[in-house]
Write the structure tokens for this entry.
Amino acid sequence: MTLELKETRIEGSVVYDGSFLKVERDKVRLPDGSTSHREYFRHPGAVVILPLLPDGRILLERQFRYPNAQVFIEFPAGKIDPGEDHLACARRELEEETGYTAGKWRFVCTIHNAIAYSDEHLELFVAEDLRPGPQKLDQGEFLELFSVTLPELLDMVKRGEITDVKTIIGAFWLEKILSGAWLPA
């Protein structure tokens, strides 16, 4: 016998509607018939780029993230604009943040990084055949670029220097892709 796990929305409202995030609060019917409330963030989704330089090194960024008051090491990433194609967003974000353009793109996977309190999804892409160009950072955006080898990247994850979930997942995907064990979708 399979337990019915679906929760059904009865009613709800927007608690906060910002320029980037929206917070909603819904009353829901639980599988056993009782009711409860769910508060969650609505997020437009984002792309994550796993950029492979021509010499085999991997391009990363250092960026200060205000909510945690620290500099994080991350893959280039950015928010998907309304109606924007995911690959077009990845191309735009790579060029804006790093200045690079890519001759080859491969979709890797979709991840949901905060399923308990957000509908955010991240679309991961491998970018290869990179060509340098000028960065086109947004106003107020500051980041530092650097490159590492795959073993260095994995060591940074192992040592806890990289704690960003999208970057950790991307690193593990790159390890499988570069070894030939996994092929992107």
